[in-house]
Amino acid sequence: MRSSASRPQPTGLRPATGGIPFLRLCAVELRKQLDTRAGVWLLVAIALVNCGFIALTLFTADAAALTWTSLSQSASLGQLLLLPLIGVMAATSEWSARTALTTFTLEPRRTRVNLAKLASAGALGLIVMAVAFAVRAVLNLVGIVWQGGDGSWALDWGIVAGSGLALVLLVWQGVAFGLAFLSTPVAIVAYLALPTVWTVLTLTIESLRGPAEWLDVNQTLNVLMMGAMTADDWPRLTVSLVVWLAVPLAFGLWRTARREP
């Protein structure tokens, strides 16, 4: 009589040995960010804010200032401010919606799931940025026809690359804060308030202005977005990202690896 251990298992119950492919995990995490009402409405809010700033530029700026570059810069605030909140929700949704048990049963390697969240959130940021550039190109034509604008198509690619990298880093910071706090409202408040409070303190307390050159992520990312990075700016950016991105991310990965679903 054969023991139960030697009996062949049904195919449907045989445990997977290779794991879920990483690209499939990224696709699933990207779909999660777009499937929720909060995610959809946040993208709608970003679009409305961008359109509002573009309309303000079209109506108030001089004709010579109506270029593809100026429209792109005026509309970047919405996505830089709001898109990282999708990163926050991507990290906290497993725990707030109580889907962690299902997710981590299908893929027990939690750090791998969290890395997929980082990759998909960064990809979503770049997709939104690309779509926004296309929309601004159409509105640049509107500015030429309607307002007699300059309509220049020249772009400062240093600014474009810096803005894209800054957007991805901010989205990753949102994911890091979400993993660290595992609560959507707490993580959003922390993400918005803590760097802002530090920036205000550095502006009001003179003794903090020196350290702020290395520790104020808003200041270092602003230089990156202006496309004005020098050899001295990259170490400052790295240190600020260690404090505001790497540390909360490392803590969040450690915390989610040990928390009960």
UniProtKB/TrEMBL annotation:
The keyword Transmembrane helix belongs to this UniProt entry's keyword annotation: yes
Residues passing through the membrane, by range: 40-59, 79-97, 118-139, 151-172, 179-201, 234-254
Annotated keywords: Membrane, Transmembrane, Transmembrane helix
Protein name as annotated: Uncharacterized protein
Organism of provenance: Cryobacterium arcticum
